[in-house]
């Protein structure tokens, strides 16, 4: 039985020069993805590293960024650079503080401006190159995807 999104590796992807309009969540990585109404939470996940977002501009309706990575298999080396996303306004132009907040869970990487909304700049944790987190990803990959 596969976890929510399956098993394997995603690495070295670049999303650049993208314009969006009224997208719910323009930047998404979700290791908790489930294509059914209910999924049991799994401890294994697809290993994700080297994902770059560069020059993403436009508007969103729910949240600018959602990077939700597994507690056991964090996302590594995620870059958010030159991201300019504004709330589309919704009903009567209302914008909430919550709507401005980027969500990053157990994700490591770097950000580089300009970043709008500013919460994107505080979203990712700093990478610990060669340290505990990268070793943890390697061990998880070896267990999930034996040669």
TrEMBL record:
The biological process GO terms on file are: carbohydrate metabolic process; cell wall organization
A GO term, aspect molecular function: polygalacturonase activity
The record's listing under SUPFAM superfamilies reads: Pectin lyase-like (SSF51126)
Superkingdom as given in the UniProt entry? Eukaryota
Q: Which UniProt keywords apply?
A: Cell wall, Cell wall biogenesis/degradation, Glycosidase, Hydrolase, Secreted
- Chief location bin: secreted
Which subcellular locations apply to this protein? Secreted, Cell wall
Q: Does the keyword Hydrolase apply?
A: yes
Give the protein family.
Answer: Belongs to the glycosyl hydrolase 28 family.
Output this protein's name: Polygalacturonase
Organism name:
Arabidopsis thaliana (Mouse-ear cress)
Give the organism's phylogenetic lineage: Eukaryota, Viridiplantae, Streptophyta, Embryophyta, Tracheophyta
């Amino acid at each position: 039985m596969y976890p929510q999104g399956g098993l394997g590796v995603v690495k070295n992807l670049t999303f650049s020069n993208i314009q969006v309009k009224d997208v719910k969540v323009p930047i998404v990585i979700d290791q908790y993805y489930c294509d059914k109404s209910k999924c049991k939470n799994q401890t294994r996940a697809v290993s994700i590293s080297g994902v770059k977002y560069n020059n993403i501009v436009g508007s969103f309706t729910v949240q600018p960024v959602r990077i939700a990575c597994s507690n056991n298999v964090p996302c590594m080396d995620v870059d958010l650079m030159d991201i300019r996303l504004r709330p589309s306004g919704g009903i009567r132009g209302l914008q909430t503080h919550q709507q401005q907040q980027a969500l990053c869970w157990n994700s490591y990487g770097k950000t580089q401006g300009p970043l709008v909304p500013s919460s994107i700049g505080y979203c990712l944790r700093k990478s610990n190159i060669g340290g505990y987190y990268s070793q943890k990803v390697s061990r998880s990959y070896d267990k999930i995807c034996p040669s």
